[in-house]
């Protein structure tokens, strides 16, 4: 393995690059001694690439960006599918409907109206007697 003094260091911005993709692809492009890690340069997030040779070419970076986009799309699709079939972690805390606006409100009003009419009918009947 080469000493760190004979290694070249390059920084590239993180824009459009998924960390997992660049980590998986870097040694394929630059050899087994190449490493990558997150690194902030002048306040901008990116990746510090250490390699014995030259850095990634534009074509290699484009390929990493395309693979990164595919990775994000797969992750988004997995999240969307998981949200639809997600089982509650605490099924005992599943919400129970007490009342719903709309149909139950009108049912409650009808019930209250019926009670009110029954009360009036009883009162009227008592007055007559």
- List low-confidence stretches: none
Distance between the termini: 111 Å
SSE succession: EHEEHH
Oligomer: single chain
Strand adjacency order, main sheet = 1-3-2
Structural class: alpha+beta
Beta-strand percentage? 15-25%
Tell the overall outline: rod-shaped
From the alpha-carbon coordinates, what is the Rg to the nearest angstrom? 34 Å
Largest sheet: 3 strands, antiparallel
Mean pLDDT: 83
Strand count: 3
Number of helices: 3
Roughly how much helix do the residues carry, as a percent range?
A: 40-55%
How are the SSEs ordered, and which strands pair?
Layout (H helix, E strand, L loop, with lengths): L7 E6 L5 H12 L4 E7 L2 E8 L6 H28 L17 H26 L1
Antiparallel strand pairs: 1-3, 2-3
Helix pairs in contact: 1-2
Pick out its properties.
129 residues, alpha+beta, 3-stranded antiparallel beta sheet, 3 strands, rod-shaped
Task: Walk me through this protein's architecture.
The structure is a single chain. The protein is 51% helix and 16% strand. The longest helix is centred in the middle third of the chain and has 28 residues, at 58-85. The mean pLDDT is 83. α1 (19-30) runs antiparallel to α2. β2 and β3 form a beta hairpin. The protein has helices spanning 19-30, 58-85, 103-128; strands at 8-13, 35-41, 44-51. It has a domain at 4-85. A three-stranded antiparallel beta sheet has the order 1-3-2. With 129 residues, it is an alpha+beta fold.
